[in-house]
């Protein structure tokens, strides 16, 4: 699905995004294709929704391992449009979640948002 491995694909996605993206990827190994595809989908949906709906000035995109789980986190400083991406991300990752800037589960549109998707790598 992806032409390179996930770090290169996320870098390319970030460079093409409509908003400035701060990218922080701590992955060096190649992952299973379905894991990389799910992570890319989550990141792509989140960046698209942030650009369309959040009125953000900046988006942060991170990907790292937590044991045998790939974690993809996206946050913006806008009005919380990442909830739309979280709703779609559940298709790719049933452990996707969203939180307001204060850290509580939220569907609010008036606070910055954070999307966290946890994708098992086993």
Helices and strands, with pairings:
Blueprint (H helix, E strand, L loop, with lengths): L5 H11 L4 E6 L6 H22 L4 E8 L2 E8 L5 H11 L4 E4 L12 E8 L2
Parallel strand pairs: 1-2
Antiparallel strand pairs: 2-3, 3-5, 4-5
Helix pairs in contact: 1-2, 2-3
* Inertia-based shape: globular
Overall pLDDT metric: 78
SS summary, helix count? 3
- What can be said about the biggest beta sheet? 5 strands, mixed
Number of strands: 5
Strand order of the largest sheet: 1-2-3-5-4
**Topology as a string of helices (H) and strands (E):** HEHEEHEE
Structural class: alpha+beta
Termini separation (Å)? Answer: 19 Å
User: What does the radius of gyration come to?
Assistant: 13 Å
Which percent bin holds the helix content?
A: 25-40%
What does this structure look like?
This protein has 122 residues and is of the alpha+beta class. It contains 3 helices and 5 strands, in the order H-E-H-E-E-H-E-E. The protein has a 5-stranded mixed sheet with strand order 1-2-3-5-4, covered by helices on one side. Strand 2 (59-66) and strand 3 (69-76) form a beta hairpin. Residues 89-111 have low confidence and may be disordered.
């Amino acid at each position: 699905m992806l032409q390179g491995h996930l770090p290169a694909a996320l870098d390319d996605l970030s460079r093409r995004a409509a908003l400035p993206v701060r990218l922080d990827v701590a992955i060096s190994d190649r992952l299973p294709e379905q894991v990389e595809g799910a992570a890319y989908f989550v990141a792509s949906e989140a960046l698209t929704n942030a650009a369309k709906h959040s009125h953000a000035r900046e988006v942060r995109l991170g990907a790292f391992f937590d044991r045998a789980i790939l974690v993809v986190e996206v946050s913006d400083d806008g009005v919380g449009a990442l909830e739309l991406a979280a709703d779609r991300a559940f298709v790719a990752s049933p452990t996707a979640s969203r939180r307001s800037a204060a850290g509580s589960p939220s569907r609010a549109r008036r606070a910055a948002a954070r999307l966290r998707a946890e994708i098992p790598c086993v």
